[in-house]
Structure prediction request, 136 residues.
Amino acid sequence: YMFHFRWALLVSAFLGAVVNPILMSPFAYPLWTWSTPVRYCTYITLLFYSFVAAYSVCSCVWHERYRPFSWVGVALFYALGWLYIGWHATLQSIALARVVRGNVGEWKVTRRTVDSTDGLGKPLLPNGGAVAVPIS
Prediction:
């Protein structure tokens, strides 16, 4: 069910982050033409989004004081999140089209590059790599 749920979430995010801002843009419909409840809802939504974005940037600044590049990354994420959702929707749509058409290629099992034996065929870790941790 997770596959179908992922698609429902993707459609919801795409509508909310890409389609809705285009349809409800103040440039398409000036704010003074909107009804008062719709304007208040728009202002409150913008206020909440601004709060979450500002809080996230402030948290990043607090925890990553000496890495200002990460501040820019978080700010860009909130400013350009709609591009990410659009790109993600595009990639998922291409993947779904390939699955539906049967054009997915085949799985190839590859050998691990790191040998976990000692050269004589004995494993380096006992119990197949499982490590027992005593609980005190």
Summary: The mean pLDDT is 77. Residues 39 and 92 are 34 Å apart (CA to CA).
